[in-house]
Amino acid sequence: MMASLSTPPATAGVSPSPRPSLLAYKKAAGLTPSPWCGWRRAAVATAATSSNRTAAPAETIVTGNDVPLLSFAEVAERLDEFHASGTRNQNYMAMYSSIFGGITTNPSAMVIPIDDHMVHRGHGVFDTAAIMNGHLYELEQHLDRFLKSASMAKITLPFDRSTIRSILIQTVSASKCTQGSLRYWLSVGPGDFQLSSAGCANSALYAIVIESPSLPVPAGCKVITSSIPIKSQQFAVMKSVNYLPNALTKVEGEENGGFTGIWLDDEGFVAEGSNMNVGFVTQSKELLMPRFDKILSGCTAKRVLTLAKQLVADGRLSGISSRNVSVQEGKAADEMMLIGSGILVKPVVQWDDQIIGSGKEGPIAQMLFNLILEDMRSGPPSVRIPVSY
């Protein structure tokens, strides 16, 4: 069914040429555009006209003439139009899919099958790695967690670890992106719309490179205690695509004038943010983080703990600890921060109605931000893999 999955990845260093849009190709070739080229404008005009009509009875049947039957070429053309419309607000530079067994640099072609069980059942896992100055940051560490999550989710690998690693690096190479992020997914694959994955012939690997020319800024933020139930331990420690609780926690934080929400565990101790870890600097200048036994083991947070040893050595911190943290202790801390690959280190200046410390960005959070950023730019080979463009 999916012979392309067994196709070995492209030779290292060989990058596919960007495919011109189908719309541009047709125009260059002097071909007549599809009668549906103006589908967006037609849809808007139809909606405007329909709004002036009397509402149709609920039992009205929509005829086949109301929705066009499109050829593959017309679908591709409309995908080109969708991308050109500016609806997307990120730059997608390259995508790998084991479904078509290669890399594309055309954002219109960056799609996955609707019957992939990752889409309709959430049976998939994912991870990420930052791209900084043409290097992949902590790819090995994220890849280890990625494969552990896949095992927990009972997803059979389509390739071995070294092949997956090679595919990810080649995708970044093809993208020509030197600063941004690499995101990748493993799914039980497409096949049907059943609950069981028994009908999925092969698992699937997807990866995408997103350009992010600007760096995060360590500006202070507000957080709230989330009312959304935290995921159970079995699922909290696995980085699966089931992020609805995470998304709702983030939305709830934003709706209450904050950056995100903070989860508490089943015993009422501080757990984590919507997609980042939480850290504190106590009044005794100890860097404190909740234990990772009930939450996702953050690669960036663990690296911060390692880099923070420099601040202990020079006396800026009295020590580093990972243990249960009560809400009372957290709100009484000198500093509070969120830690994750997308934000690095972000100071928290208010939690619910409680001002944290002085109410301004703390010095330790700023130092840790600088340390992790410098590590991304010039850290050791154990955390930085060069990409050959």
UniProtKB/TrEMBL annotation:
InterPro entries: Aminotrans_IV, Aminotransferase-like, BCAT-like_C, BCAT-like_N, Class-IV_PLP-Dep_Aminotrnsfr
Keyword hit for Lipid biosynthesis: no
Key word Lyase present: no
UniProt keyword terms in alphabetical order: Pyridoxal phosphate
Pfam families in the record: Aminotran_4
Gene3D superfamilies in UniProt: 3.30.470.10, D-amino Acid Aminotransferase, subunit A, domain 2
Domain of life of the organism encoding this protein: Eukaryota
UniProt-listed SUPFAM superfamilies: D-aminoacid aminotransferase-like PLP-dependent enzymes
Any single GO BP term: carboxylic acid biosynthetic process
Needed cofactors: pyridoxal 5'-phosphate
GO molecular function: catalytic activity
Family: Belongs to the class-IV pyridoxal-phosphate-dependent aminotransferase family.
UniProt protein name: Os02g0273100 protein
Species assigned in the record: Oryza sativa subsp. japonica
